[in-house]
Amino acid sequence: MSDTGVNDTIDGDVARYATAVRAAFADLPGPERELLLEDLEDHLQEVAAEAGGPLEERLGRPETYAAELRASAGLPAAGAGRARPRLRESRVARRLRRSWRGTMAHPAAAATAEFLPELRPAWWVLRGYVAVLAASAVLGGLYPGDGQGMRFPVPALFGSQLLGLLAIVAAVVVSVRLGRRGPAAGWRRGLGVAGNAALGLFAVVLLLDLGARTAGDDDPAQLVTVYQRASWGLRADGREISNIYAFDADGKPLRGVYLVDQDGNPVVATHNDNPFLDPRELVDRDGNEVANRYPQAQQEVDPATGGRSAVPAPEFRPPPGPVRSP
Amino acid sequence: MDTTQLLKGVLDLAVLAVVGERDGYGYDVVRRLRAAGLDDVGDASVYGTLRRLYAGGHLTSYVVPSEEGPHRKYYALNDAGRARLAESTATWRAFTDAMDKLLRSEGEAAA
Fold first, then answer.
1. Which positions ≥6 away from A164 have C-beta within 8 Å?
2. Beta-carbon contacts of residue B25 (< 8 Å; ≥ 6 apart)
3. CB-nearest partner of A68 from B26, B27, B45
4. Do A46 and B43 touch (CB under 8 A)?
5. How many CA atoms lie within 13 A of A136 on its CB side?
6. Which of A187, A215, A243 is the last residue of a domain?
7. A48 and A71: one domain?
8. What are chain B's domains?
9. What does pTM read for this prediction?
10. What is the pLDDT along chain A (326 residues), one digit of tens a residue?
């Protein structure tokens, strides 16, 4: 037998033994398992290299070895305590778990996973604040609809931002205490996970909404944004139509033309942020919405100076009338 | 008396002492413990203890290329490990002193 042949036999024995040992640690989370077992193979290789004979003869059965390793590493015996009987894994789940394990074995991933738990206290603080924001949103204190926009960053509770501030302090204290106590057991643990997920989702939604709002904070522009949201806009061949000009048969521009569709519904043009629309164009004398009167007096903004000027009407010359007058 | 039960309580101290004496890789620590007279020490126990001490921040490690076989991960004490070793040594001395006294008076009574 050649030298490589001997090494191959040893490697195979080590690999088999290591796999059997690793199987007894399937209940541990990936990073913890890797930290414990990352040089198991190298270590077994040393044992195997020192004296001949299969590893099992020298170290005992892999299950026994694993049990001893668990005990000395300060872990509960496999299958004891919290560990629940594992449901049979589907093929997809197993493949996912393998690729997850492969990803987590990368040093960068392992370092990140090690660091993530340190972010927990930050989430506890944020969680308390987000909980008050959510309560305020439910009670209508976040967007009171009094024209002053959203109450942020201090939400109002029952109409009082001071009350909101006190609630934030109290909620952060409670949240941190809950966090420090660690995960609860049984159904309460499920409740905790669901609550965390709901608050996390709320925080993301709030952030997106905030982004949309700050984009249209300018006063008249904001009004246009509101109308823009209220309308689906008008398109021809996929192109946005922001204004409509009507001319009579003599080429005279018509003003104050109301457009309705085949069902009598107002036809509302698409309003971009630019050109700006004078908000007065969109309401009648009684303050009701009139969004289908054309042409609308639009203004455009010079990006360099910020000054506004009226958008000029397009040129149009009507063709000679139809062959036969109606 | 079953020495494996005794070993469980003092394996941390034994491993810290061996590594404190001279840096070593896993199997080297096993061999040195056995050479020192702890014949019953289990390979898996030493490996698990080393990894636990390492994860707990009492040991540092570095890899040394080996000509035959795999690269070796050497363990060394850091400040936390040295502090732990000193503390455990003191506890051990106090404990063995108490046990010695107890056994001596026991011996006198029997004599």
1. A132, A136, A141, A151, A154, A155, A156, A157
2. A46, B64, B72, B73, B74, B75
3. B45
4. no
5. 30
6. A215
7. yes
8. 3-110 (1.10.10.10)
9. 0.42
10. 444 445 556 678 888 999 999 988 888 888 888 888 988 988 888 888 876 778 888 888 999 999 989 888 888 877 654 444 455 667 777 788 888 877 877 878 877 877 777 888 888 888 888 888 888 887 776 766 655 556 677 777 777 888 888 889 999 998 888 888 776 667 777 888 888 888 888 888 888 877 776 655 545 444 444 444 444 567 677 677 778 888 888 888 888 888 888 888 878 776 554 456 666 666 677 777 777 888 877 777 677 777 777 777 888 887 776 666 55
* Chain A CA closest to residue B7: A72
Q: What's the token pair of residue B19? A: 């590594």
Q: How many domains are there within chain A?
A: 3
Which tokens belong to B84? 């732990």
Determine the Cα–Cα distance for residues B109 and B111; give it in Å rounded to an integer: 5
Helices (H), B1-111: 3-21, 26-35, 43-55, 79-110
How far does A101 lie from chain B, in Å, by closest CA?
19
- A206: enclosing H helix or E strand: helix A187-215
Q: Which domain holds residue A167?
A: 119-215
Comparing alpha-carbon positions, the chain A residue that sits nearest to B51 is A36
Gap between the Cα atoms of B43 and A88, Å rounded: 33
Are residues A140 and A78 part of one domain? no
